[in-house]
Specification:
Strand order of the largest sheet: 3-2-1-4-5-6-7
Number of strands: 7
Radius of gyration: 18 Å
CATH architecture: 3-Layer(aba) Sandwich
Strand content: 5-15%
Number of helices: 8
CATH topology: Rossmann fold
Shape: globular
Largest sheet: 7 strands, parallel
Order of helices and strands: EHEHHEHEHEHEHHE
Number of domains: 1
């Protein structure tokens, strides 16, 4: 048995399936969560969308999905890497269909770590950018949760289903991102009540500033200075909390917005 997560299966037994969105870069939070859950006994389906990375400052990482999948397989997990543009309303159903077909079973844990995040403020955000942020961060998250709720069934009297969404409190200078993440919070917390009869818990995690290559050196120094522990977060910091929330030991934590940010100032 691992410290948290699911029991490590013996040969011939079935591992539960986690679906993780937004696993496009090997240094990203999504990839860190995927590695942790694989080590804790989960099979992992994950989504990525290379065109998003291409238009961001950090650029696309060639072969990232294949490399991550190989790491997960080395940890004992069966994997399914699914390229999906979550701005499309039909994408969530296709993602679930492909995950179930390729891994041979229903999804037990849904982890939402995808995001559209392009800086702009109140005065310079375009309608197109606003709509794209809400399509990816809010609408897609709702549709993924809805698809999960339509498919998941737990044994009577048990709470084995898990939904964990990653959020942010960054709004100033990043209006459409912050506003759409605020909507994500409410959607996920609603699921804690509306899907409870299915044996599902739902929580939101705010990881604070995590060093995954997106910040300038000046911003990095400012964020480190505002954190009592004197460092940025790591993908592993977030992954350990998600792992716990997805574990049997984490089933009593439900309907919460958890800050796992080292005490960083808002």
């Amino acid at each position: 048995m691992t410290t948290t997560g699911q029991p490590s299966p013996t040969p011939g037994t079935t591992r539960p399936i986690a679906l993780i969105t937004g696993v496009g870069r090997s240094i990203g939070i999504g990839a860190g969560i995927a590695r942790r859950l694989a080590a804790s006994g989960w099979d992992v389906a994950f989504t990525y969308w290379t065109p998003y990375d291409r238009r961001m400052d950090w650029g696309a990482e060639p072969g990232a999905a294949e490399s991550i999948a190989k790491e997960l397989a080395e940890a004992g997990a069966r994997t399914a890497a699914i390229e999906a543009d979550l701005s499309g309303p039909d994408a969530p159903t296709r993602v679930f269909d492909e995950a179930e077909q390729r891994l041979g079973g229903p999804v037990t844990a849904l982890v939402l770590s995808h995001a559209e995040s392009v800086d702009s403020g109140l005065l310079d955000t375009t309608v197109e950018a606003f709509d794209r942020h809400f399509a990816v961060n809010s609408r897609a998250s709702w549709l993924l949760i809805r698809e999960y709720g339509l498919r998941f069934r737990s044994a009577p009297g048990t709470a084995t289903g898990r939904i964990v969404a990653l959020t942010s409190d960054h709004t100033v200078g990043n209006l459409p991102y912050g506003a759409s993440k605020g909507a994500l919070d409410r959607i996920t917390l609603a699921a804690a009540h509306e899907l409870a009869h299915l044996g599902v818990t739902a929580n939101v995690v705010n990881p604070g500033p995590v060093g995954t290559g997106w910040m300038t050196e000046d911003l990095r120094e400012a964020l480190v200075g505002g954190t009592p522990l004197g460092r940025l977060g790591t993908p592993q910091d977030t992954a350990h909390l998600v792992d716990f929330l997805c574990s049997p030991e984490g089933q009593w934590v439900n309907g919460q917005l958890l800050k796992s940010n080292g005490g960083a100032a808002s």
